[in-house]
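Hello forum,

I keep getting stuck at the same step: I have a sequence, I want structure tokens, and every attempt I make locally crashes halfway through. Rather than fight my setup again tonight, could one of you with a working pipeline run this one for me? It's a single chain of 90 residues.
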Amino acid sequence: MTRIVDLEDWAMEVATTIYRVCLYRRVFGQFPPNTHYVTAGELAETQTKLRDLNDAEFARAIEDAQDAAWEVYQRVYRRHSTPPPSSQIN
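Reply #2:
Ran it on my machine without issues. Output:
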């Protein structure tokens, strides 16, 4: 059975994962133990640690994570929404 995934939803899931990983890295100075995702517990730790940042550090952490997530969203969407080039020779 093949699961049909809406491209926009899938791109958003990938971007959300990147956002959380980048935010974790920015707050803790390292990638999470599993560099592919942030667990619910790690996300809670990140949220707690965000409260300890000053305004400039907080704004920078959010901005960096948003920029990375937006870039990934665009790349995923573009790559998978563009039809492959034609292999026909005229």
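The helical segments are 7-28, 40-50, 55-81. If your local run keeps crashing, start a new thread with the error log.
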